[in-house]
TrEMBL record:
It is a lipid-anchor. GO terms for cellular component: cell outer membrane. Belongs to the outer membrane factor (OMF) (TC 1.B.17) family. It is found in: Cell outer membrane. It comes from the Bacteria. This is Efflux transporter outer membrane subunit. Keywords: Lipoprotein, Membrane, Palmitate, Transmembrane, Transmembrane beta strand. It comes from Candidatus Methylospira mobilis. SUPFAM superfamilies: Outer membrane efflux proteins (OEP) (SSF56954).
Length: 499
């Protein structure tokens, strides 16, 4: 051990221990986070019976969307969507920033080596206490600097950094849930377009049959050209929908492929819209549970936590910074004599530096941090209010759409009978062609409206699942490795919902 090194190491150790004790005894300045009070309804306004703790949100997405083709599309989207993959890099950045902030809690240790060359003289002659006129001193040393986080500036910065990182994770989960919802929505819209195309083709054939009857009667002189012209016009109007629907189908396929992160191509569909299962029971759970389930609410709360921590950072700047700097090394007059004739170099410096006058900058930073927290709190409360509204709206839509579908089904079936009866009466000479055309022209938009309702009934399930924060219990990896029926715990709930 070099002479003099042990005493300085002992003194530094005692000093470090004292500073660590001081650091542990002082709480960081600034308010500790407390979740703000949210006006949570005990039950949903229009559905007071929704008081179960069970929720559709407890199910994985493959437990809600049971079409095997749709499941494969969603799995592909979750694995390959570029927007979702970009969120991973966002999380990595946030994590790195949090670790950067935390690193300031520890001493920063480095090294330095110095080599110089020069001449010295003593009244024009070489200094007697140096060997010759030319000297090349060399210095090697380890240096350490450490800011003691007495007021909690670094701890609050670390707290804010990790809250930002968690917020970015919730942002990714929100993007993932939105992606699943978007794929399911686009897929059902594609199936509805296919159904509308089939109806348009069938209606065109129906008008074509009427046109043939009118043409035959015209040839036999028992009908006028007005009848055939009206029938031809009605047929052409519906037939014009066919290429437009085919165009919309291709555009919808492109939309789905974009969500899947791949180039344009045909989207497989094995089951029609009407064969898609609708849940019999739609448990929404307690409204208060949304705060723990919805990723956008969890993200907003983490942003609130970060804003709260930054108030502490701003307050800590009013207090002096306590720093410790130390150096330990050797110095030699000649590189060749580094092992002999060297001297030890060591020292420690304790600094205290604080603001006196900053022109109001520190107070402005503090005011900005408080305002940012107030903004984040209001945004959190607004997000919670919006969440309750979305769930209630989805449940209202589900209930009313069932009633709408019931009446539309009655109207469609009645008009189908009317078309058949009108044709029979026309052929028998008991009705005019107006009755036939009117019945056919009324049937087509009624059938289309029914397909819209069928689509909306499935859309509302998507909206409710998203509004509830669906799949919140499952990790990102489980979402990627999704397999219907894989999770045993969800089997009972899935069966009840679809029974």
């Amino acid at each position: 051990m070099l002479p003099g090194i042990l005493p300085i190491k002992v003194r530094l150790s005692w000093l470090a221990a004292l500073l660590l004790l001081l650091n542990a005894c002082v709480n960081p300045v600034g308010p500790d986070y407390q979740r703000p009070e949210i006006d949570k309804p005990a039950s949903l306004p229009h559905h007071p019976e929704q008081t179960e703790t069970k929720s559709m949100a407890d199910l994985p997405w493959w437990g809600v969307f049971r079409d095997k083709t749709l499941q494969q599309l969603i799995k592909s989207a979750v694995a390959n969507n570029y927007d979702l993959r970009a969120t991973v890099q966002r999380i990595e950045q946030s994590d790195a920033l949090a670790r950067q902030a935390q690193s300031q809690l520890f001493p920063q240790i480095g090294y330095q080596v110095g080599l110089s060359n020069g001449k010295n003289s003593y009244f024009g002659m070489a200094a007697p206490f140096l060997r010759g006129e030319s000297v090349s001193p060399i210095v090697t040393a380890l240096n350490m600097s450490w800011e003691l986080d007495i007021w909690g500036r670094i701890r609050r910065s670390t707290e804010a950094g990790y809250a930002d990182m968690l917020a970015s994770q919730e942002f990714r989960r929100g993007i993932m849930l939105s992606l699943v919802s978007s794929v399911a929505q686009a897929y059902f819209e594609l199936l509805q377009l296919e159904l509308r195309l089939a109806i348009a083709k069938k209606t065109t054939q129906s008008f074509d049959g009427s046109l043939q009857i009118f043409t035959q009667r015209l040839q036999f002189g028992v009908a006028s050209k007005l009848e055939t012209d009206r029938a031809l016009s009605a047929k052409a109007q519906v037939a014009a929908h066919i290429p437009d629907l085919e165009r919309q189908i291709l555009v919808k396929e492109n939309q789905i492929n974009l969500l899947l992160g791949r180039n344009s191509g045909t989207i497989k569909r094995d089951i029609g819209l009407l064969q898609q299962e609708l849940p019999v029971q739609i448990p929404a759970g307690l409204p208060s549970a949304l705060l723990e389930r919805r990723p956008d609410l969890r993200q907003a709360e983490q942003q609130l936590i970060a804003a709260n921590a930054r108030i502490g950072v701003a307050r800590s700047l009013f207090f002096p910074k306590l720093g410790l700097t130390a150096i330990l090394g050797r110095t030699s007059l000649e590189l060749s004599g580094f092992t002999a004739g060297t001297s030890n170099l060591y020292g420690a410096f304790l600094s205290l530096a604080g603001p006196i006058f900053q022109g109001g900058m520190l107070m402005a930073q503090h005011d900005q941090a408080i305002a940012a927290y107030a903004q984040a709190e209001l945004e959190y409360k607004q997000a919670a209010l919006n969440a309750f509204k979305e769930v209630d709206n989805a449940l209202i839509n589900s209930e009313k759409l069932s009633e709408i579908k019931k009446q539309q089904t009655i109207a469609t079936e009645a008009l189908e009978d009317a078309v058949t009866v009108a044709l029979e009466r026309y052929v028998a000479g008991k009705a005019s062609y107006y009755e036939v055309l009117e019945a056919q022209q009324q049937l087509y938009p009624t059938q289309v409206a029914l397909t819209e309702t069928e689509l909306m009934q499935r859309t509302v399930i998507i909206q409710l699942y998203k509004a509830l924060g669906g799949g919140w219990k499952f990790s990102d990896q489980e979402w990627l490795e999704a397999e219907a029926g894989k999770n045993v715990e969800t089997t009972t709930d899935e069966g009840k919902m679809h029974e």
